[in-house]
Each structure stands twice: as structure tokens, then as C-alpha cells.
Design goal:
About 20% of the residues lie in helices and about 35% in strands. The protein has 2 helices and 6 strands. Strands 1, 2, 3, 4, 5 and 6 form a 6-stranded mixed sheet that branches. With about 100 residues, it is an alpha+beta fold.
């Protein structure tokens, strides 16, 4: 059985998350679900995908949810696509699962 934990991988001093981001969304929530086929966490941001605005909102929102500074969050793949891989420094997979698990 798939779970949001499948979208989070340990990586040295942090974790890497697989996200499916919907920009220009009218939703007030950031994490909107889990896609078991793509093994990614679905997210919505209000910012448009222009000049990195949506990516900045992703990094800020993840930082808030995971309790790390936004500077510890970096889009490492998919900067111009809806499917992204995001590295978060200073957190373990267990901590990330506990905090993200509150949304499921």
C-alpha cells in the first residue's frame, strides 16, 4: 500500500520530497493530497508559474509546515514543471512524515 512516506527520501542531512504542484490555484491549502501512482504529494499554490513565484511559495510553505527556514528548502529538479523534487535540509524523514502526516 502506498503512503505519503513513499514521496519522502532520506538525503544526507535532510530529505527529498516528490511534489506535484498546481500553480495559480484558488485553494487556501498547500498540501491537497497524495498521488499513489506518481508517489508524490499534491500541492497547490496561489502564485503563478512566472519568474519563479510559484517555486518561492512552495519553498516558503514547505519551510513553515516542516519547521525549517525557507532557505533550507531548495527545488532541485522540475523548476519549470509541475512535478518537482525538493530538498529540505535539517530534518529527518521521520520528522517530515510526522508534520506532513497531519494533512492526511
Amino acid at each position: 500500500m502506498s503512503s505519503p512516506g513513499d514521496a519522502i527520501a532520506e538525503s544526507g542531512t535532510g530529505v527529498i520530497l516528490s511534489l506535484e504542484v498546481s500553480p495559480s490555484s484558488g485553494r487556501d491549502e498547500f498540501i491537497t493530497g497524495y498521488d499513489p501512482w506518481r508517489r508524490s504529494i499534491r500541492c497547490s499554490v496561489r502564485s503563478p508559474p512566472v519568474q519563479g513565484k510559484a517555486n518561492r511559495e512552495v519553498m516558503e510553505s514547505l519551510g513553515e509546515i516542516l519547521g525549517v527556514p525557507a532557505g533550507s528548502v531548495q527545488v532541485i529538479a522540475g523548476a519549470t514543471q509541475s512535478r518537482k523534487r525538493v530538498k529540505v535540509e535539517g530534518i529527518t524523514k521521520k520528522e517530515a512524515l510526522e508534520r506532513i502526516g497531519l494533512f492526511f
